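Renewal narrative, Specific Aim 1. Our central claim is that a sequence can be written position by position from structural information alone. The example that follows is taken directly from our test logs and has not been curated for this report. It begins with the C-alpha cells describing the chain, in the order in which they were read.
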C-alpha cells in the first residue's frame, strides 16, 4: 500500500461559564484527488464577547472556509485559495454588520477571530487573524506559532487589533512549515491557553495518544476547573504519515489506462474513425478522427512510442488534459467533452483547421504592424488565462500556436505547463522543458520561471514576426552562468528597412530584458505598450552606451586604458 497523507484529529468545545458558545471549529479530510491537491483543513474561530451575533460570524467563517476552499481551483496554491476565501468571508461579514443595527458599532457586529491550518503533502500552511493560537508540541514544551493580534492598553484593558469582519479589507498572517510523522499541533482559544499550562497539555497528549478527543476534552475541563470565564475550545492534530517527496495522486484511474497502438487511417479506435495522421514528432502522434456516434471531428493525441518507458514524460502527457479542462479561453485549445469510457491513454481535443504560427510567418514574411499586434493580443489573452490559474506555459513558440481560418490564434500544447498547486503538492526537479531559443534566461540560471518568463517568450515571437529573426540569435541557449546572461546583446528591431517604430522597439527591449525584474510587470502592460507609445520611450535623451551595449562599452574602455598606459610608458622612456 502506497504511503499518503494521514493525520489524527481530536476536538472539544464548551461554552464554559458563558450562556452561549461563540467558538466554532471544524475539520475536513477529503478523499483523493482533493486530498493531494488541496490537503486537510482544520479551522477554529472565536466570536468576540461584546457582540451578541459573533457566534454567527464564527460559524459562518468556519463553514464557508471548509466549503469554499475545496471549491477553489485545483491549480491554485494553498495560499492563493485560502486568501481568496478569507477575503470574501471578511467582505461578507463586514457587509452584514453594515446592514444590521450595529452598523456604527463594530464591536457588536459580525466579527470573529480566525485560525486555520491546511496540511498539504509535507507542508503545514497556517492562516491567522486574531488571538486564537496554534502551538507545535515539542517534547514537554509548546512552541507558539501564531502572534496575538491584541492591542494592550493597560494591564486590565486590551482589544483586538485584527479580526474577520471589522474592516472592509483584511490582513492575514501566513506561514508554511514542514511536517513529519509524529508531529503534534494544538489549536486553542484564549479561554483554554490562558488557563492551562504547557506541562498539563504535554502530559494529556502523552497519556491519551490513542484518544485525542479525550485529550482535548481533558484540557478543556482543566481550563474550566482553573477558573476560565470564557468559551473553551481545543483541537489536536497528529501527523501520522506524509507522502513521499514527488508523489501525487491527482489523475485518478486515468493513469492506469494502457498505452494504445498507433492506429492506421480508416481504422476504428475507441469509438473514433481515424482519418489521417496530422502531425508526428518525438513527443507525440496527432490524428484527425471522427466520433462515430456524433460525427464530430476531433484531434487525438497519442503518446510517442519512443518515450513510453519515460515516466516523467507520461506524467506530463497525462497532465495535458487535466490542465486543458481548467482553462477557459477562446485562445487556448479546448479538450473534447467525454461521452464514453476510454480504454486507452490518449487525449481528445477540438480540431482546429488552420496552420501553425511558424507556417504563417513563412507565408507572411513581412506582416503589417497591426496584424502582428492582433496576433500578439490573442496569444497574450491565452497566456493570461493560464496565469489566472497560477499556471506557466513555459514552452510558448510559433509551433505551439495555431491560426485558424478566421485568424484566431490558439495555444495548443501544454506538455511543459507548470501548475503551482501541483508543484506545491509534488515538488519536482527543475528542468528546461521549453524550446531553447524562446526560453527566458532565468531558466538557464536555475532560477525557475514566472509570468514574466512567458512574456519573454511572447516578446520573442513578436520580435520574430516583425523582423524575421530572434532578438538574441542563439545566444540565450548558450547561457551557462550569470555572466553569460549579462553578455546578451539585444539587436534593435529597427535595424533593417522594416521601419519598426522606435517606441515599439523600446517596448520589445524591455519585455526581452535578461533580468526578469526589469521587464514589464504583466503581459497586458507589454501589449498595451505595443499600441500606445510610452512617453519614456519618446525621450530625446540618448541611452548611454553602457546600457545599450555593456560589452562594447568595456571593450572600448579597455582599449582607451591600454592606449593611456602605452602613452605613459613612452613618455617615461623618452625621459
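The sequence written for that structure reads:
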Amino acid at each position: 500500500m502506497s504511503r499518503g497523507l494521514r493525520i489524527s484529529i481530536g476536538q472539544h468545545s464548551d461554552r464554559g461559564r458563558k450562556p452561549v458558545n461563540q467558538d466554532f471549529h471544524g475539520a475536513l479530510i477529503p478523499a483523493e484527488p482533493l486530498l493531494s491537491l488541496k490537503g486537510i483543513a482544520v479551522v477554529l474561530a472565536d466570536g468576540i464577547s461584546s457582540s451578541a451575533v459573533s457566534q454567527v460570524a464564527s460559524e459562518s467563517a468556519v463553514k464557508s472556509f471548509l466549503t469554499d476552499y475545496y471549491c477553489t481551483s485545483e491549480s491554485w496554491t494553498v495560499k492563493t485559495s485560502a486568501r481568496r476565501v478569507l477575503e470574501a468571508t471578511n467582505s461578507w461579514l463586514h457587509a452584514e454588520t453594515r446592514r444590521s443595527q450595529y452598523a456604527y458599532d463594530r464591536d457588536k457586529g459580525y466579527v470573529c477571530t480566525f485560525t486555520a491550518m491546511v496540511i498539504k503533502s509535507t507542508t503545514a500552511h497556517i492562516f491567522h487573524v486574531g488571538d486564537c493560537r496554534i502551538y507545535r508540541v515539542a517534547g514537554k514544551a509548546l512552541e507558539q506559532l501564531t502572534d496575538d493580534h491584541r492591542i494592550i492598553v493597560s494591564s486590565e484593558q486590551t482589544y483586538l487589533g485584527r479580526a474577520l469582519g471589522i474592516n472592509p479589507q483584511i490582513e492575514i498572517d501566513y506561514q508554511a512549515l514542514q511536517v513529519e510523522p509524529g508531529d503534534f499541533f494544538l489549536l486553542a482559544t484564549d479561554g483554554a491557553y490562558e488557563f492551562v499550562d504547557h506541562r498539563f497539555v504535554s502530559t494529556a497528549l502523552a497519556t491519551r495518544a490513542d484518544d485525542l478527543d479525550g485529550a482535548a476534552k481533558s484540557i478543556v475541563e482543566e481550563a474550566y476547573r482553573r477558573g476560565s470565564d470564557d468559551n473553551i475550545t481545543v483541537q489536536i492534530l497528529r501527523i501520522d504519515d506524509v507522502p513521499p517527496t514527488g508523489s501525487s495522486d491527482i489523475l485518478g484511474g486515468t493513469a492506469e489506462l494502457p498505452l494504445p497502438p498507433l492506429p492506421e487511417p480508416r481504422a476504428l479506435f475507441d469509438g473514433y474513425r481515424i482519418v489521417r495522421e496530422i502531425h508526428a514528432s518525438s513527443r507525440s502522434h496527432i490524428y484527425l478522427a471522427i466520433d462515430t456516434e456524433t460525427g464530430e471531428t476531433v484531434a487525438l493525441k497519442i503518446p510517442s512510442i519512443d518515450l513510453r518507458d519515460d515516466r516523467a514524460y507520461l506524467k506530463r502527457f497525462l497532465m495535458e488534459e487535466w490542465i486543458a479542462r481548467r482553462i477557459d479561453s477562446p485562445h487556448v485549445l479546448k479538450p473534447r467533452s467525454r461521452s464514453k469510457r476510454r480504454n486507452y491513454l490518449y487525449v481528445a481535443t477540438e480540431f482546429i483547421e488552420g496552420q501553425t504560427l511558424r507556417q504563417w510567418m513563412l507565408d507572411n514574411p513581412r506582416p503589417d504592424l497591426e496584424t502582428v499586434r492582433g496576433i500578439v493580443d490573442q496569444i497574450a489573452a491565452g497566456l493570461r488565462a493560464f496565469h489566472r490559474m497560477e499556471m506557466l506555459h513555459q514552452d510558448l513558440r510559433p509551433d505551439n500556436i495555431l491560426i485558424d481560418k478566421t485568424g484566431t490564434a490558439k495555444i495548443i500544447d501544454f506538455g511543459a505547463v507548470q501548475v503551482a498547486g501541483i508543484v506545491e503538492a509534488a515538488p519536482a526537479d527543475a528542468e528546461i522543458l521549453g524550446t531553447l531559443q524562446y526560453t527566458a534566461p532565468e531558466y538557464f540560471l536555475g532560477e525557475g520561471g514566472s509570468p514574466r518568463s512567458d512574456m519573454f517568450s511572447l516578446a520573442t515571437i513578436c520580435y520574430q514576426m516583425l523582423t524575421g529573426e530572434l532578438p538574441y540569435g542563439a545566444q540565450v541557449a548558450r547561457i551557462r552562468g550569470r555572466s553569460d546572461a549579462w553578455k546578451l546583446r539585444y539587436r534593435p528591431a529597427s535595424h533593417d528597412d522594416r521601419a519598426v517604430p522606435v517606441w515599439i522597439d523600446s517596448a520589445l527591449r524591455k519585455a526581452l530584458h535578461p533580468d526578469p525584474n526589469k521587464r514589464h510587470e504583466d503581459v497586458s502592460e507589454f501589449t498595451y505598450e505595443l499600441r500606445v507609445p510610452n512617453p519614456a520611450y519618446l525621450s530625446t535623451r540618448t541611452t548611454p552606451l553602457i546600457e545599450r551595449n555593456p560589452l562594447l562599452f568595456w571593450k572600448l574602455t579597455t582599449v582607451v586604458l591600454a592606449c593611456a598606459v602605452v602613452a605613459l610608458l613612452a613618455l617615461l622612456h623618452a625621459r
